[in-house]
Amino acid sequence: MEVTEGAVTIEVPEERHGASEGSGSGVFYNPVQELNRDVTAAVLRVVDDECDSYLDAMTASGVRAVRAAEAGYAATGCDIDEAAVDLARSNLERNGLSGTIHHRNVNAHMHEHGHDVVDLDPFGTPIPFADAAFRSAREYVCVTATDTAPLCGAHFESGVRSYGAVPRNTEFHPEMGLRVLLSALVRTAARYDLAATPVLSHVSSHYVRTYLRLDGGARAADELFGELGYVDHCQRCLWRAHERTLVADPTAACPECGQSTWTAGPIWLGPAHDVAFVERVGEAVPESFGTASAARDLLGTVAGELHRPTHYDQHRLYKRWGEPNTAMDEFLGALREAGHEASRTHYGGTTFKTDAGVAEIREAVL
Ligand SMILES: C[S@@+](CC[C@H](N)C(=O)[O-])C[C@H]1O[C@@H](n2cnc3c(N)ncnc32)[C@H](O)[C@@H]1O
Ligand SMILES: [Zn+2]
């Protein structure tokens, strides 16, 4: 089957969606991830002044490597599956592009070779590849994680094992997943005296995607540790509080309703994106991309999001209060009128962030 993405056309053997990832035969290609790849292609356009080489660490059909080569990068792909390697090579050829595809365990490759941009796109957790990625990357590491259940605490033990943090299945679970992933990546990079700063992150269609800019130096890495900490959450009234610290000091009971709280961490509490960077990426999405309008919408929402952890869901709050919902614009307007900051978030149409606590939100909008 032929598929066109951006300015390239590639051959993929079969269509497989996220739900059946890793099963069956044939080289993997997930059409649902076109948005992820379009955003990546736009990021590559933005960073092309500082970056020349790109590693598509798990290349499968080669689609990411082919798109990077088309954007003018020295593209390298790796895969342990021989059929994937053959297909990726033929997909570069059919587009008249040069690039190198290795039949190799990419961890070994990354320990031996440097690339300006390293892109991890594995089945499930990226953690088995994270150390090697930070050894290899000079400027940016891009990471997809599809193991959202462990990340957000729905599969608790697996999340603890993979990420060395306590995840909790809260009502802000997509953001929990992102912040658990960022915490693990920042701590992994720090082992090599690297500061990995997230410049763009999104949670879409059951995957988490983040782009981290690398700066060298123990001091820079230490500074990022100041953005790690814990969040306490009340499942009953949806109160939450966060604290930047490496020593957990959980709140025993919710100060609003007295219910015992859940604590998650250490999670990343700093910004998950850089506004100027996200805006530049949004401007770099050409009309010709298959997901252009969805990608621009997503990036516009991300750019407008308050950095503050963590987001609320307006419908869940009203449900707890036993009151009918109002329109989102009216709701956010009422928060702002009461003197609070408020923004939509990309986690869902009824999600928002604010500097107001649950009691203040209720007072402002009811
Ligand atoms: C999710 S797919 C990659 C999808 C592709 N990047 C895309 O955008 O369509 C994961 C790929 O990683 C490959 N893989 C798994 N472990 C690997 C390893 N240790 N080294 C290299 N490739 C590996 C698999 O064979 C599979 O083709
Ligand atoms: Zn409470």
From TrEMBL:
The record ties this protein, via InterPro entries, to: SAM-dependent_MTases_sf (IPR029063), Trm1 (IPR002905), TRM1_arc_bac (IPR022923), tRNA_met_Trm1_C (IPR042296)
Keyword hit for tRNA processing: yes
Alphabetically list the UniProt keywords: Metal-binding, Methyltransferase, RNA-binding, S-adenosyl-L-methionine, Transferase, tRNA processing, tRNA-binding, Zinc
Example of a GO biological process term: tRNA N2-guanine methylation
Catalytic activity line of the entry: guanosine(26) in tRNA + 2 S-adenosyl-L-methionine = N(2)-dimethylguanosine(26) in tRNA + 2 S-adenosyl-L-homocysteine + 2 H(+)
* UniProt-annotated binding residues for Zn(2+): C234, C237, C254, C257
Entry EC no(s) = 2.1.1.216
Specify one Pfam family: TRM
Residues that coordinate or bind S-adenosyl-L-methionine: R37, R64, D79
Which molecular-function annotation in GO is an example for this chain? Answer: tRNA binding
* Superkingdom, natural source: Archaea
Q: Which family does it belong to?
A: Belongs to the class I-like SAM-binding methyltransferase superfamily. Trm1 family.
Which purpose does this protein serve, as stated in its record? Dimethylates a single guanine residue at position 26 of a number of tRNAs using S-adenosyl-L-methionine as donor of the methyl groups.
Q: Which PANTHER family match?
A: N 2 ,N 2 -DIMETHYLGUANOSINE TRNA METHYLTRANSFERASE (PTHR10631), TRNA (GUANINE(26)-N(2))-DIMETHYLTRANSFERASE (PTHR10631:SF3)
Name-wise, this protein is: tRNA (guanine(26)-N(2))-dimethyltransferase
Q: Which organism is it from?
A: Natronomonas moolapensis (strain DSM 18674 / CECT 7526 / JCM 14361 / 8.8.11)
The organism's taxonomic lineage, starting at the top: Archaea, Methanobacteriati, Methanobacteriota, Stenosarchaea group, Halobacteria
